C-alpha cells in the first residue's frame, strides 16, 4: 500500500498514482499532514511519499517525524520528493535522514521514472522491511522458548540470550551482551574439549554433546548443548547459535528452572488484558516478576507437571550416544555423529535407493508406492469425493444362500483351502462377483457368524454391500483382488504357527480386514490422489489416504443399515477391540510403512525364535509362547499376515502370477495416461504402455518388496510351496527379460 502526501495535484503526484496502478499497489492520497497521519494510522501503508518541494503548504520533515513517533511506522519506507536544482550545489541529505526519511526522490514527473522508483522500492527496502517484520515473530519464539538460547558473533561475542538462558545461568541480559565468551566464566571445559568443539563448528558442522557450565552464583550444572554455525555474507560463518537444556541428572535444578519459567509465562498471559488498557508493558520485566505472586498450590502443581518424565526410547539412545561422544577420541566421535544423523531421520526402516545406475523400474515403484505424491496443487483436480454415493443393502437384490450356490460355482470353490486355488475360475463362474461366494464359504469354515452372533442372511447382505462398493471397472483393485487376499488370509490362518499365536477375535478381524481392505479403491495410487488434490487426499491430509478411506467406509457401510450390520449383536467392549484390530490391519497395507513392518517382524519375532532354536530350546513351549503371545508381537504378526496376503501374487502359480502382473500393469498404465492428460506429475514414468517392460517391473517389485518379506514370513509360518512358486516365477520373468521381451508371455 502506498500513501501519497501532496498538497496539490500536479504532474508529479499524477505520475506516482499512475505508477501505483500499473504496479498493482493500493494507493491513498492525502492533502494535509493531519489527514495523512490519520490515513496512515488506519491503513498502515508500506510506502509513504511526501512532497517536500513546497514548504508553504506544510512542513514535510515535521510530518515525517510525527509519523515516525508511531509504532506502526517501524517498518515503513518514507520517501521525500525534492526539487530538482541544476544551478546550485548538491545539498546534504542528512537533515532528511534525521527527520526519518528512508531516501529522497528528485522530482521527475515521467510516469516510467515514478514506476521504476516504486519497483526498486518494492524489491529493495520494502522486502527488507518485510523480513524485519518477520524477525519480530522469530524473537517472540526465542523469548518464549523453554530451551536456553545464546547467539554469538563469529568472534564469539555474545549478541543475544533469551529469558530461559538468563533463568538457567542466573545472569541478566545486560551483564552478557557485547561480552566475549572468555569474559564470562560460564563454561567449564577442558582445553582439548574446547578444541574438539571448535574444530567441528569452524568447518560449518553442528556440534552436540554434554558439558558443564558455571552459573553466576558459582554452581556447576550439566547441560545438553547443540552449537550451530550460521553461514552469512560471503559464505562465511557469521554467527553461532547455542541451544542448551539441563540434563536429567540435574532433575531437581531443571524442575526449578522450568517451573519458574512456566509460571512467568502464565503471568505474562494474564498481563495481556492489562496491556490493552494501560499501553505496552516490557515483556522481560513482566517475566522477571512472574513467580512472585503465584500461590504455593500453583507452584506445587507445576512442579508435578515438570516432574513427569516422558522420554521415548530413541531419545534415550541418542542421549547415551551424546554422553559417549564427550569422552571419545575424534574418529569415534565422528562415527557416532554419523550414527546420530541416521537415528534422527524419520525413515529408520526404509532402505535408501542409490543415486547411480539405479534401476528406473525400482525407483518408479518405490516413488509411486512409498510416497504420498509431490504435494503439488493443480488446477486439474481429480474428484474422488468422500461424499460420493455408495451402494447400500436396500439398493441391492437379495443375495443367494450358501445352500443354493449354483453347481459351477461350487465346483470352482472345491479346493479353496489349497494355495493353488484358482480365483480367476471363480471370477468367471460368478460373473465377477467372487467375493460374496468365497466369503460365505470361508466365513462359514471359520465360524464367523457364531462369533459375531449374527445370522447368515446378515452376513450375506454385508458381503454383497462390500462387493458392490468395489469398482469392477478397475483392472486390478476390484472384488476379485479382495477375494484373492481373503483366500490368502484364510490360508495363512490355517498354518500351525499362526494358529498358536492368534485368538479367535484376531482371526475374525483378519478375515474382515482382508475383505474390506481395498473397498471403493479408485484404481489410482495415493501419490496420484495427493498430486491431483482429490477430496479424499484433503480429508486425510495426504497421509495413508486410501487405506484410511477403506477402513472408514467399511464401517460406515456396515453400521448404517441393520440388514447388513454384522456387528450389531456384539458386546460394546468386544466390538471396540475388534474394530481397532481391523483398522490396524487395513492401515498396515499402506506401502510407506512396508519396511518398518517387515523389519520389526524380523527383529522382534524371527530372530528371537531363531535364537531359541539355536540354543536348543526348540521344544521349550513356554519360551516360544512368550515370543508369540506378547500383545506387541501379535500386532506385528497380524500386520505381516495381511501384508503378505495383499501382495502375494508373485507367490501364486505361474498362470495366476502372470494374470495379476498384467492387471496391475494395466492399472498403472491407465494412471500414467490420466496424469499426462491432466498435466499432473507422472509418479511412475516407467509405466508407459508403449515402452514399459513388464518382466523388468515384476523383477524390480519382487526384488525390492517381496523376497525379504516372504523369506521372513516363510521362516515363521513354513510355506515351502509359496517359496517354490516365487522362485519359478522369478526364473520365468528373468527368462523373458533375458530375451529383451517386454510382454507378459513369450510369442508362440
Automatic annotation (TrEMBL):
Binding note for cofactor: Binds 2 divalent metal cations per subunit. Site 1 may preferentially bind zinc ions, while site 2 has a preference for magnesium and/or manganese ions.
CDD domains per the UniProt record, alphabetical: HDc, PAS
Biological or metabolic pathway of the protein: Purine metabolism; 3',5'-cyclic AMP degradation; AMP from 3',5'-cyclic AMP: step 1/1
The UniProt GO MF terms for this protein read: 3',5'-cyclic-AMP phosphodiesterase activity; metal ion binding
Q: Which residues form the signal peptide?
A: none
Query: Which keywords belong to this entry?
Result: cAMP, Hydrolase, Metal-binding, Phosphoprotein
How does this protein assemble? Interacts with RAF1. The interaction promotes RAF1 activity.
What function does this protein fulfil? Hydrolyzes the second messenger cAMP, which is a key regulator of many important physiological processes. May be involved in maintaining basal levels of the cyclic nucleotide and/or in the cAMP regulation of germ cell development. Binding to RAF1 reduces RAF1 'Ser-259' inhibitory-phosphorylation and stimulates RAF1-dependent EGF-activated ERK-signaling. Protects against cell death induced by hydrogen peroxide and staurosporine.
Q: What is this protein called?
A: Phosphodiesterase
Q: Give the originating organism.
A: Vidua chalybeata (Village indigobird)
Query: What gene is this protein translated from?
Result: Pde8a
